[in-house]
Amino acid sequence: MYELIKKDGLAKRGRLHTVHGVIETPVFMNVGTAAAIKGAVATSDLQEIKTQVELSNTYHLHVRPGDEVVKKLGGLHKFMNWDKPILTDSGGFQVFSLAGLRRIKEEGVYFNSHIDGRKIFMGPEESMQIQSNLASTIAMAFDECPSSVADRDYMEKSVARTTRWLVRCKKEMERLNTLPDTINKHQMLFGINQGGVYEDIRIKHADEISKLDLDGYAVGGLAVGESHEEMYRILDAVVPHLPDNKPTYLMGVGTPANILEAVDRGVDFFDCVYPSRNGRHGHVYTNHGKLNLFNARFELDARPIEEGCQCPACRNYSRAYIRHLLKAKEMLGMRLCVLHNLYFYNTMMEEIRDAIDHDCYKEYKTQKIAAVTGKNE
Protein backbone atom coordinates (compact mmCIF):
# COMPACT_ATOMS: atom_id res chain seq x y z
CA MET A 1 0.00 0.00 0.00
CA TYR A 2 1.24 3.49 -0.94
CA GLU A 3 0.67 6.31 1.47
CA LEU A 4 0.97 9.84 0.07
CA ILE A 5 2.16 11.82 3.08
CA LYS A 6 2.35 15.29 1.54
CA LYS A 7 3.13 17.30 -1.56
CA ASP A 8 5.26 20.36 -2.16
CA GLY A 9 4.12 21.59 -5.56
CA LEU A 10 4.09 18.38 -7.63
CA ALA A 11 6.90 16.79 -5.56
CA LYS A 12 5.52 13.81 -3.64
CA ARG A 13 6.57 12.56 -0.21
CA GLY A 14 5.31 9.02 0.22
CA ARG A 15 5.68 5.68 1.90
CA LEU A 16 5.22 2.29 0.22
CA HIS A 17 4.36 -0.48 2.66
CA THR A 18 5.63 -3.87 1.45
CA VAL A 19 6.04 -7.37 2.81
CA HIS A 20 9.79 -6.67 3.10
CA GLY A 21 9.48 -3.34 4.91
CA VAL A 22 8.56 0.29 4.31
CA ILE A 23 10.09 2.31 1.44
CA GLU A 24 10.34 6.03 2.13
CA THR A 25 9.93 7.96 -1.13
CA PRO A 26 11.34 9.61 -3.17
CA VAL A 27 13.82 6.72 -3.33
CA PHE A 28 16.81 5.74 -5.44
CA MET A 29 17.07 1.99 -6.02
CA ASN A 30 20.63 0.64 -6.08
CA VAL A 31 21.17 -1.47 -9.20
CA GLY A 32 22.47 -5.01 -8.64
CA THR A 33 21.81 -6.53 -12.07
CA ALA A 34 22.96 -10.09 -11.33
CA ALA A 35 21.98 -9.97 -7.62
CA ALA A 36 25.09 -7.94 -6.74
CA ILE A 37 26.13 -4.31 -7.09
CA LYS A 38 29.08 -4.20 -9.50
CA GLY A 39 32.26 -3.10 -7.73
CA ALA A 40 32.60 -5.77 -5.01
CA VAL A 41 29.75 -4.33 -2.92
CA ALA A 42 28.22 -6.76 -0.41
CA THR A 43 24.66 -6.59 0.94
CA SER A 44 26.17 -5.72 4.35
CA ASP A 45 27.66 -2.63 2.63
CA LEU A 46 24.21 -1.71 1.30
CA GLN A 47 22.88 -1.55 4.86
CA GLU A 48 25.72 0.81 5.82
CA ILE A 49 25.24 3.20 2.87
CA LYS A 50 21.50 3.68 3.53
CA THR A 51 20.12 1.59 0.66
CA GLN A 52 16.35 1.11 0.86
CA VAL A 53 15.72 -0.95 -2.29
CA GLU A 54 17.98 -3.21 -4.34
CA LEU A 55 17.12 -3.76 -8.01
CA SER A 56 17.93 -6.98 -9.86
CA ASN A 57 17.43 -8.04 -13.44
CA THR A 58 14.94 -10.72 -14.48
CA TYR A 59 16.61 -11.50 -17.81
CA HIS A 60 20.16 -11.82 -16.42
CA LEU A 61 19.09 -14.01 -13.48
CA HIS A 62 16.97 -16.17 -15.79
CA VAL A 63 19.96 -16.99 -18.00
CA ARG A 64 22.41 -17.28 -15.05
CA PRO A 65 22.12 -18.96 -12.57
CA GLY A 66 18.49 -19.63 -13.55
CA ASP A 67 15.37 -18.49 -11.66
CA GLU A 68 14.54 -22.11 -10.74
CA VAL A 69 17.92 -22.32 -8.97
CA VAL A 70 17.16 -19.13 -7.03
CA LYS A 71 13.72 -20.47 -6.08
CA LYS A 72 15.23 -23.74 -4.79
CA LEU A 73 17.54 -21.63 -2.62
CA GLY A 74 14.62 -19.77 -1.07
CA GLY A 75 14.26 -16.76 -3.38
CA LEU A 76 16.40 -13.73 -4.07
CA HIS A 77 16.33 -12.36 -0.52
CA LYS A 78 17.83 -15.53 0.94
CA PHE A 79 20.11 -16.06 -2.05
CA MET A 80 21.82 -12.68 -1.67
CA ASN A 81 21.23 -12.25 2.09
CA TRP A 82 19.19 -9.05 1.85
CA ASP A 83 16.09 -8.51 3.98
CA LYS A 84 14.82 -5.22 2.56
CA PRO A 85 12.73 -4.66 -0.59
CA ILE A 86 13.93 -5.86 -4.01
CA LEU A 87 12.50 -4.73 -7.34
CA THR A 88 13.01 -6.95 -10.37
CA ASP A 89 12.62 -5.45 -13.82
CA SER A 90 10.74 -7.56 -16.32
CA GLY A 91 13.55 -8.42 -18.72
CA GLY A 92 11.82 -6.51 -21.50
CA PHE A 93 14.47 -3.81 -21.87
CA GLN A 94 17.27 -6.40 -22.04
CA VAL A 95 15.39 -8.54 -24.55
CA PHE A 96 14.99 -5.52 -26.80
CA SER A 97 18.48 -4.08 -26.30
CA LEU A 98 20.77 -7.12 -25.94
CA ALA A 99 19.17 -9.56 -28.30
CA GLY A 100 20.41 -8.83 -31.81
CA LEU A 101 18.16 -11.47 -33.33
CA ARG A 102 14.63 -11.42 -31.99
CA ARG A 103 11.10 -11.94 -33.23
CA ILE A 104 8.23 -10.10 -31.58
CA LYS A 105 4.89 -11.91 -31.72
CA GLU A 106 1.62 -11.37 -29.90
CA GLU A 107 2.47 -14.21 -27.51
CA GLY A 108 5.88 -12.75 -26.61
CA VAL A 109 9.44 -12.50 -27.89
CA TYR A 110 11.74 -15.20 -29.29
CA PHE A 111 15.43 -14.40 -28.95
CA ASN A 112 18.88 -15.84 -28.29
CA SER A 113 20.74 -15.65 -24.98
CA HIS A 114 23.63 -13.19 -25.08
CA ILE A 115 25.65 -15.65 -22.96
CA ASP A 116 25.46 -18.95 -24.80
CA GLY A 117 23.21 -18.25 -27.80
CA ARG A 118 20.48 -20.69 -26.71
CA LYS A 119 16.97 -19.93 -27.90
CA ILE A 120 14.70 -18.34 -25.28
CA PHE A 121 11.04 -17.35 -25.37
CA MET A 122 9.72 -14.72 -23.01
CA GLY A 123 6.20 -13.34 -22.84
CA PRO A 124 4.11 -11.75 -20.07
CA GLU A 125 3.37 -15.05 -18.34
CA GLU A 126 7.00 -16.22 -18.50
CA SER A 127 8.29 -12.91 -17.11
CA MET A 128 5.82 -13.10 -14.21
CA GLN A 129 6.76 -16.74 -13.53
CA ILE A 130 10.47 -15.91 -13.47
CA GLN A 131 9.89 -12.94 -11.15
CA SER A 132 7.67 -15.07 -8.91
CA ASN A 133 10.47 -17.65 -8.69
CA LEU A 134 12.87 -14.85 -7.74
CA ALA A 135 10.29 -13.76 -5.12
CA SER A 136 11.09 -10.08 -5.40
CA THR A 137 9.04 -7.49 -3.52
CA ILE A 138 8.01 -5.62 -6.68
CA ALA A 139 7.77 -7.16 -10.16
CA MET A 140 7.70 -5.07 -13.32
CA ALA A 141 5.27 -5.83 -16.14
CA PHE A 142 6.68 -7.24 -19.38
CA ASP A 143 6.59 -4.56 -22.06
CA GLU A 144 8.09 -3.76 -25.42
CA CYS A 145 10.71 -1.03 -25.18
CA PRO A 146 10.61 0.46 -28.70
CA SER A 147 13.25 2.86 -29.96
CA SER A 148 12.52 6.45 -28.95
CA VAL A 149 12.84 7.37 -32.63
CA ALA A 150 10.34 4.75 -33.86
CA ASP A 151 7.72 6.18 -36.20
CA ARG A 152 4.21 6.97 -34.96
CA ASP A 153 2.53 3.96 -36.61
CA TYR A 154 4.98 1.49 -35.06
CA MET A 155 4.78 3.22 -31.66
CA GLU A 156 0.97 3.07 -31.56
CA LYS A 157 0.95 -0.66 -32.39
CA SER A 158 3.75 -1.37 -29.91
CA VAL A 159 2.00 0.50 -27.07
CA ALA A 160 -1.29 -1.29 -27.77
CA ARG A 161 0.53 -4.63 -27.52
CA THR A 162 2.23 -3.53 -24.27
CA THR A 163 -1.26 -2.79 -22.85
CA ARG A 164 -2.51 -6.26 -23.82
CA TRP A 165 0.61 -7.77 -22.30
CA LEU A 166 0.02 -5.80 -19.07
CA VAL A 167 -3.47 -7.28 -18.69
CA ARG A 168 -1.91 -10.75 -19.09
CA CYS A 169 0.80 -9.90 -16.55
CA LYS A 170 -1.77 -8.84 -13.97
CA LYS A 171 -3.86 -11.98 -14.50
CA GLU A 172 -0.81 -14.28 -14.26
CA MET A 173 0.53 -12.57 -11.12
CA GLU A 174 -2.84 -12.90 -9.42
CA ARG A 175 -2.73 -16.64 -10.24
CA LEU A 176 0.87 -17.09 -9.08
CA ASN A 177 0.23 -15.30 -5.78
CA THR A 178 -2.39 -17.95 -4.89
CA LEU A 179 -0.16 -21.00 -5.50
CA PRO A 180 0.98 -22.96 -2.41
CA ASP A 181 4.65 -23.09 -3.43
CA THR A 182 4.96 -19.37 -4.26
CA ILE A 183 7.58 -17.87 -1.94
CA ASN A 184 6.23 -14.29 -1.90
CA LYS A 185 2.45 -14.35 -2.14
CA HIS A 186 2.35 -10.55 -1.66
CA GLN A 187 4.42 -9.69 -4.74
CA MET A 188 3.47 -6.28 -6.14
CA LEU A 189 3.10 -5.40 -9.83
CA PHE A 190 4.08 -2.11 -11.48
CA GLY A 191 2.87 -1.32 -15.01
CA ILE A 192 4.98 0.60 -17.54
CA ASN A 193 3.95 3.59 -19.64
CA GLN A 194 5.46 3.72 -23.12
CA GLY A 195 5.07 5.91 -26.19
CA GLY A 196 8.48 7.36 -26.96
CA VAL A 197 8.45 11.14 -27.37
CA TYR A 198 4.83 11.27 -28.61
CA GLU A 199 2.91 13.09 -25.87
CA ASP A 200 -0.55 12.06 -27.07
CA ILE A 201 0.37 8.33 -27.26
CA ARG A 202 1.92 8.55 -23.78
CA ILE A 203 -1.12 10.28 -22.28
CA LYS A 204 -3.62 7.83 -23.85
CA HIS A 205 -1.53 4.88 -22.59
CA ALA A 206 -1.27 6.38 -19.09
CA ASP A 207 -5.05 6.83 -18.94
CA GLU A 208 -5.60 3.22 -20.08
CA ILE A 209 -3.21 1.53 -17.67
CA SER A 210 -4.32 3.69 -14.72
CA LYS A 211 -7.70 1.92 -14.89
CA LEU A 212 -6.02 -1.41 -14.01
CA ASP A 213 -5.41 -0.26 -10.40
CA LEU A 214 -1.88 -1.67 -10.15
CA ASP A 215 0.49 -1.25 -7.19
CA GLY A 216 2.58 1.35 -9.04
CA TYR A 217 3.32 2.86 -12.44
CA ALA A 218 6.58 3.41 -14.28
CA VAL A 219 7.51 5.70 -17.14
CA GLY A 220 9.71 3.60 -19.43
CA GLY A 221 11.50 4.20 -22.71
CA LEU A 222 13.20 7.42 -21.64
CA ALA A 223 16.92 8.00 -21.00
CA VAL A 224 17.56 6.05 -24.22
CA GLY A 225 18.96 8.80 -26.37
CA GLU A 226 16.47 11.66 -26.26
CA SER A 227 17.57 15.01 -24.79
CA HIS A 228 16.98 15.91 -21.13
CA GLU A 229 14.56 18.60 -22.30
CA GLU A 230 12.52 16.03 -24.22
CA MET A 231 12.46 13.77 -21.17
CA TYR A 232 11.20 16.60 -18.95
CA ARG A 233 8.58 17.51 -21.57
CA ILE A 234 7.24 13.94 -21.58
CA LEU A 235 7.20 13.84 -17.76
CA ASP A 236 5.31 17.15 -17.66
CA ALA A 237 2.73 15.64 -20.02
CA VAL A 238 2.36 12.11 -18.67
CA VAL A 239 2.83 12.16 -14.88
CA PRO A 240 -0.44 14.08 -14.23
CA HIS A 241 -2.24 11.20 -16.03
CA LEU A 242 -0.84 8.55 -13.67
CA PRO A 243 -2.54 7.93 -10.30
CA ASP A 244 -1.34 10.34 -7.60
CA ASN A 245 -2.05 7.74 -4.91
CA LYS A 246 0.42 5.22 -6.40
CA PRO A 247 4.22 5.34 -6.74
CA THR A 248 5.55 6.80 -10.02
CA TYR A 249 8.83 5.28 -11.19
CA LEU A 250 11.09 6.82 -13.84
CA MET A 251 13.11 3.89 -15.17
CA GLY A 252 16.87 4.12 -15.73
CA VAL A 253 17.28 7.78 -14.69
CA GLY A 254 19.71 9.26 -14.01
CA THR A 255 22.13 12.00 -13.03
CA PRO A 256 21.56 13.84 -9.73
CA ALA A 257 20.17 16.81 -11.72
CA ASN A 258 17.78 14.48 -13.66
CA ILE A 259 16.46 13.07 -10.38
CA LEU A 260 16.00 16.52 -8.82
CA GLU A 261 14.07 17.73 -11.89
CA ALA A 262 11.92 14.57 -12.06
CA VAL A 263 11.01 14.75 -8.34
CA ASP A 264 9.74 18.27 -9.06
CA ARG A 265 7.44 16.71 -11.69
CA GLY A 266 5.93 14.10 -9.34
CA VAL A 267 8.26 11.09 -9.77
CA ASP A 268 9.21 9.17 -6.62
CA PHE A 269 11.09 6.00 -7.69
CA PHE A 270 14.43 6.01 -9.55
CA ASP A 271 17.19 3.63 -10.59
CA CYS A 272 20.35 4.10 -12.62
CA VAL A 273 23.74 2.46 -13.16
CA TYR A 274 25.51 5.85 -13.19
CA PRO A 275 26.77 5.94 -9.57
CA SER A 276 28.24 2.44 -9.70
CA ARG A 277 29.49 2.63 -13.29
CA ASN A 278 31.10 6.03 -12.77
CA GLY A 279 32.61 4.86 -9.49
CA ARG A 280 34.24 1.89 -11.20
CA HIS A 281 35.99 4.38 -13.49
CA GLY A 282 37.17 6.64 -10.66
CA HIS A 283 34.50 9.31 -11.20
CA VAL A 284 32.94 10.42 -7.92
CA TYR A 285 30.03 12.75 -7.08
CA THR A 286 30.42 15.62 -4.62
CA ASN A 287 28.56 18.79 -3.70
CA HIS A 288 31.21 20.68 -5.68
CA GLY A 289 30.74 18.79 -8.94
CA LYS A 290 32.07 15.43 -10.18
CA LEU A 291 35.74 14.53 -9.66
CA ASN A 292 37.94 12.22 -11.73
CA LEU A 293 40.27 10.67 -9.14
CA PHE A 294 42.67 9.53 -11.87
CA ASN A 295 43.58 13.20 -12.26
CA ALA A 296 47.19 14.03 -11.30
CA ARG A 297 46.05 16.90 -9.07
CA PHE A 298 44.89 14.36 -6.46
CA GLU A 299 48.28 12.63 -6.16
CA LEU A 300 49.15 14.42 -2.88
CA ASP A 301 45.58 15.28 -1.80
CA ALA A 302 45.17 14.08 1.78
CA ARG A 303 41.50 15.13 2.01
CA PRO A 304 38.61 12.65 1.77
CA ILE A 305 36.58 12.59 -1.45
CA GLU A 306 34.18 15.01 0.26
CA GLU A 307 34.70 16.76 3.60
CA GLY A 308 32.00 15.76 6.08
CA CYS A 309 30.78 12.74 4.08
CA GLN A 310 30.11 9.75 6.34
CA CYS A 311 30.52 7.03 3.69
CA PRO A 312 33.07 4.22 4.35
CA ALA A 313 35.51 5.73 1.82
CA CYS A 314 35.46 9.28 3.18
CA ARG A 315 35.59 8.21 6.83
CA ASN A 316 38.78 6.22 6.30
CA TYR A 317 40.75 7.13 3.17
CA SER A 318 42.23 10.08 1.27
CA ARG A 319 41.82 11.06 -2.35
CA ALA A 320 45.55 10.37 -2.81
CA TYR A 321 45.24 6.80 -1.50
CA ILE A 322 42.12 6.02 -3.56
CA ARG A 323 43.84 7.47 -6.65
CA HIS A 324 46.83 5.20 -5.99
CA LEU A 325 44.52 2.16 -5.74
CA LEU A 326 42.82 3.06 -9.02
CA LYS A 327 46.14 3.59 -10.82
CA ALA A 328 47.46 0.29 -9.42
CA LYS A 329 44.24 -1.43 -10.59
CA GLU A 330 43.51 -2.57 -7.05
CA MET A 331 39.84 -3.56 -6.72
CA LEU A 332 39.57 -1.68 -3.42
CA GLY A 333 39.83 1.66 -5.26
CA MET A 334 36.86 0.83 -7.46
CA ARG A 335 34.88 -0.48 -4.50
CA LEU A 336 35.46 2.65 -2.40
CA CYS A 337 34.38 4.93 -5.26
CA VAL A 338 31.19 2.90 -5.81
CA LEU A 339 30.36 2.98 -2.09
CA HIS A 340 30.87 6.73 -1.99
CA ASN A 341 28.68 7.36 -5.04
CA LEU A 342 25.81 5.18 -3.81
CA TYR A 343 26.01 6.82 -0.38
CA PHE A 344 25.94 10.23 -2.11
CA TYR A 345 22.77 9.29 -4.05
CA ASN A 346 21.04 7.72 -1.03
CA THR A 347 21.89 10.77 1.10
CA MET A 348 20.58 13.10 -1.61
CA MET A 349 17.26 11.21 -1.52
CA GLU A 350 17.13 11.74 2.28
CA GLU A 351 17.68 15.46 1.70
CA ILE A 352 14.94 15.50 -0.96
CA ARG A 353 12.47 13.85 1.43
CA ASP A 354 13.42 16.31 4.18
CA ALA A 355 13.00 19.30 1.83
CA ILE A 356 9.51 18.16 0.78
CA ASP A 357 8.62 17.58 4.46
CA HIS A 358 9.62 21.18 5.19
CA ASP A 359 7.93 22.73 2.11
CA CYS A 360 11.20 24.01 0.67
CA TYR A 361 11.80 21.65 -2.23
CA LYS A 362 12.12 24.32 -4.95
CA GLU A 363 14.87 26.15 -3.02
CA TYR A 364 16.64 22.89 -2.22
CA LYS A 365 16.51 21.77 -5.86
CA THR A 366 18.01 25.02 -7.13
CA GLN A 367 20.86 24.90 -4.60
CA LYS A 368 21.55 21.19 -5.08
CA ILE A 369 21.66 21.37 -8.89
CA ALA A 370 24.16 24.24 -8.61
CA ALA A 371 26.20 22.13 -6.16
CA VAL A 372 26.29 18.83 -8.08
CA THR A 373 27.09 20.57 -11.35
CA GLY A 374 29.94 22.48 -9.71
CA LYS A 375 28.30 25.86 -10.31
CA ASN A 376 28.25 26.99 -6.68
CA GLU A 377 32.01 27.47 -6.38
Summarize the entry for a quick read.
This protein is an alpha/beta fold. It is built from 15 helices and 16 strands.
Task: Please characterize this protein's 3D structure.
The chain has 377 residues and is an alpha/beta fold. The chain contains 15 helices and 16 strands. The protein has two domains: 2-272, TIM Barrel (Alpha-Beta Barrel), CATH 3.20.20.105; 279-372, no CATH class. Helix 1 (43-48) links the parallel strand 4 and strand 5. The protein is globular. The N and C termini lie far apart (43 Å).
Q: Helix/strand/pairing class, anyone? A: alpha/beta
Largest sheet: 8 strands, parallel, barrel
Uncertain segments of ≥5 residues (pLDDT<50)? none
- Residue-averaged pLDDT: 95
Percent strand equals 15-25%
Strand order of the largest sheet: 4-5-6-10-11-12-13-14
Percent range of helical residues: 40-55%
Q: Which of globular, elongated, flat, extended, rod-shaped describes the shape? A: globular
Give the distance, in angstroms, between the N- and C-terminal Cα atoms.
43 Å
CATH superfamily of the largest domain: Queuine tRNA-ribosyltransferase-like
Count of DSSP strands: 16
Q: How many domains comprise the coordinates? A: 2
Query: Compute the gyration radius: what is it?
Result: 20 Å
CATH architecture of the largest domain, by name, is Alpha-Beta Barrel
Count of separate DSSP helical elements: 15
Question: CATH fold name of the largest domain, please?
Answer: TIM Barrel
CATH class of the largest domain: Alpha Beta
Pathway: tRNA modification; tRNA-queuosine biosynthesis
Region (RNA binding): 252-258
Binding site for substrate: 89-93, 143, 194, 221
Organism: Dorea longicatena
